[in-house]
Amino acid sequence: MKFKATSYHFDLLKDNDRVSAFFEAINDYSGNNDLAYDLGCGSGVLSYFLSESFHKIIAVEIDSKAAECASDNLNEFENVTVINSDVLDCNFRQKADLIVCEMMDTALIDEEEVQVLNHARKALKNGGEIIPKAIVNFAELVNMERDYIHWDENAKYEILSNTVNYSKIDFKDEINPDFEKDIEFKANKTGNANGIKITTVTILNDNMVCGPTPMFNPPLLIPIDEIDVKCNDLINVKLKYIMGQGIETVSTQIM
Ligand SMILES: C[S@@+](CC[C@H](N)C(=O)[O-])C[C@H]1O[C@@H](n2cnc3c(N)ncnc32)[C@H](O)[C@@H]1O
């Protein structure tokens, strides 16, 4: 099947690791299911995967061009309805067996996954599932070339510490978007630390975990005040951000 897509959604479609991870996770639902919501459906690719095993799929997309592509792509599927709307304006009357919401980005800082799930979670049946199910965030102390916050594509950096698992977020729980944590790193080499690297690992369902891919949660490099470290030094960094409010909300402080 050939999909119409905006250039951004086309890049998402070309990311095979991302698409096949969601395909596998959705395929676990093969069988006779009632209703699924696909929130932020983009080109409609995940609704296409859902269409085999759900009687009804409601796909919501805020971007009018993407919603138009999704409607065209899925118009032969009588069980899929595409709605061009902000999910936050939707009043979900029916409870779903499954909510799929791929508004993911590193540590959920830049996209609206948290706000959307906090709004839509009440529309999940008892025993219903959310894909993805959870995320786990990791941080490392680094020396990085650039002195501003950026994703790690084509970026040069050297890792100077252990990897710290600093938070886990379960999508079935109400999520507080205000994040603040003191993270303790143990240096494992001598160097000049001037940043931290954040990596998000996504738990799609009980059987599947997905690391970063080119279009799915690429690691984020965040500056900190420079500090010289040597092996076994303990460095504490306070990390703050507001999930869903953008990378401008990120701040760090060496404690
Ligand atoms: C990362 S893309 C995923 C697209 C598609 N689900 C896929 O997997 O290819 C996230 C999509 O969510 C949409 N989106 C973001 N915030 C939204 C909101 N509040 N309501 C509806 N759609 C939203 C974006 O326009 C974008 O198309």
TrEMBL record:
Molecular function terms from GO: histone methyltransferase activity; protein-arginine N-methyltransferase activity; rRNA (adenine-N6,N6-)-dimethyltransferase activity
Entry-linked Pfam families: Methyltransf_25
Keywords, ordered alphabetically: Methyltransferase, Transferase
CDD domains assigned to the protein according to its UniProt record, in alphabetical order: AdoMet_MTases
Keyword Methyltransferase listed: yes
Origin: domain of life: Archaea
Protein name as catalogued: Predicted RNA methylase
Organism for this UniProt entry: Methanobrevibacter millerae
